[in-house]
Amino acid sequence: MLDFFTKDAIQHLGYIFTFLALSIKDVLWLRLILALAQLILGSYQFIAMRYDIVFWNAIFTFVNVFHILRIINERKPVKIPKEIKDLYDKIFNNMTTKEFLYFWNLGSNYNKSDCVIIKEGECQENLFLLLSGSANVTRNKKNIAILRRGDFIAEISLLTQEPASADVYLDKNTKLIMWNQDQIRHFQSSNPTFWTKLHNVLTKDLIEKVKS
User: Fold this and answer.
1) pLDDT digits (tens, 9 = 90+) for 118-174
2) For 173, left (φ over 0), alpha (ψ -120 to 50), or beta?
3) Is it the case that residue 19 has pLDDT exceeding 80?
């Protein structure tokens, strides 16, 4: 039919795209290239009248297209409420907006003021993020840090699963958001990619505190 683009050339082109797909790290592009490769190989088998193989390539293509649409939908940005947009931009920007809002909605408001929220030597059940007001970190009755909006509380105990190494006292008019640590740790097995992103967020927070 065509002098250059013979049936064999079509088959080899399909294998080339399959090889390219396996060398791509991004899952979306991997799926796109692999679906294209399967379409090309399916076309070759159709010309060769191997309809059984065409059937299986059609199924593989359908599965890849399904996952392509799912990934595109997951990556589609969603609007973040204005009151927490600065926290996403400053702290959680390694996450997609959907991942951030999913994590945010797992938390609950914690509105206590003028009290000790963390006691040195005690195991912690929750992770906190300061939304307004301030908190004082003390060790041996000596003030070692002042926390403000965007600072985590009890992130060390989440990462190390060890008791708190200092006391944290909330000042007046303080608002926080709180997550259960066991629920967060579950991401290590249920969603390792998200856990890695959150782990990086908390590690960055610790590094910034050490610098200050």
Assistant:
1) 999 999 999 999 999 999 999 888 888 899 999 999 998 998 889 988 999 999 889
2) left
3) no
User: pTM for this structure?
Assistant: 0.69
Q: What is the pLDDT of residues 31-74, one digit of tens each?
A: 887 888 778 777 777 777 777 778 887 888 888 888 888 888 77
Q: Which residue range forms the structural domain that includes residue 44?
A: 7-75
Domain co-membership, 58 together with 34: yes
Q: Do 132 and 173 belong together in one domain?
A: yes
Please, which residues have CB within 8 angstroms of residue 50's CB and are 6 or more apart in sequence?
A: none
CATH number, position 124: 2.60.120.10
Number of domains in the chain: 2
Instruction: Centre a 10 Å sphere on the Cβ of residue 31 and count the other Cβ atoms it contains.
Output: 22
* 72 vs 161: CA distance, rounded Å: 36
Q: Is residue 149 part of a domain?
A: yes
Looking at 31, 58, 75, the residue that finishes a domain is 75
